[in-house]
Design a protein that fits this description.
Blueprint: H1 2-34, E1 41-44, E2 49-56, E3 59-65, E4 68-73, E5 77-80, E6 101-102, E7 106-107
Antiparallel strand pairs: 1-2, 1-5, 2-3, 3-4, 6-7
Region (Disordered): 86-121
Protein name: Preprotein translocase subunit YajC
Main location: membrane
């Protein structure tokens, strides 16, 4: 009898820990895909950023660059991208003429520190 109870408890645990959350995520994804409108900025499941141009039943026309439009299925839309402000670089500006040093006395030469008189090939 206790074996049957343990088996039922395992099935219930699997349902609440695995199946139910997955169904909820799937329903949220379908809701998001059905709420798309032209002008929405999105990211596909493959990581491509684009803007929705038109919606045709289960297809979405995306503009990936100015004048470049592609057709995708709605299921390929991973998430809606919300516009955010550009990140602010908190590092102080460093003068290009200043060279970094290693151990305080050995100058490190950057690729941009080439002699200006030698021609570049």
């Amino acid at each position: 009898m206790s074996t049957i109870i343990m088996l039922v408890l395992m099935v219930v645990a699997f349902y609440f820990l695995l199946i139910r959350p997955q169904k909820k995520r799937q329903q949220e994804a379908v809701k998001m895909q059905n709420s798309l409108a032209p002008g929405t900025r999105i990211m596909t499941t493959t990581g491509l950023f684009a803007t929705v141009v038109a919606i045709d039943h289960e297809d979405v026309i995306l503009e990936i660059a100015p004048g470049v439009e592609t057709r995708w299925v709605k299921a390929a839309i991973g998430r809606v991208v919300t516009p955010v402000d550009a990140p602010v670089d908190s590092t102080d500006e460093v003068d290009d003429d200043v060279k970094a040093t290693v151990d305080g006395d050995v100058p490190v030469k950057n690729d941009t520190d080439q002699d200006q008189s030698t021609p570049k090939s």
